[in-house]
Amino acid sequence: LMVQRALDEPYVAFRTTTELREGGALFLSASMPVRDADMFLNPSARNPAVHVASNRGASGIDGVVSSALGYAQGLARPVTLLIGDGAALHDLGALRCLRDSEQPVCVIVVNNGGCGIFSFLPIAQHKDVFPAFF
């Protein structure tokens, strides 16, 4: 992937959806990745031949890598996973399963400083506690 500009979350979502090919599949993590893809999806990438899915766990970000592995297995095709750093940490054990997966899963981790969605919530106004806990 040749990049001619700085990487940020919207651009990663845009480029990820741009690079999907017919017959491809995309699994989106809850939190910022699913929102970024919804807002910044490349309009020319809207292709009914590309499967897109997401799920919502108990807190939204648990088990995402495992879910993407199951999605790839169920579709019997390769899957691209767009996931945030916080969600990736919540499912570290599943990364080991990638090696044994019958279907390839390409994992794109967006490092937004750990659960970047919290910067959009009211807690972000509390500068005395926000950096320490979020």
UniProtKB/TrEMBL annotation:
Thiamine pyrophosphate enzyme TPP-binding domain span: 64-118
Highest taxon of source: Eukaryota
InterPro entries associated with the record: THDP-binding (IPR029061), TPP_enzyme_TPP-bd (IPR011766)
Short name of any one Pfam family annotated for the protein: TPP_enzyme_C
Single GO molecular function: thiamine pyrophosphate binding
Protein name (record): Thiamine pyrophosphate enzyme TPP-binding domain-containing protein
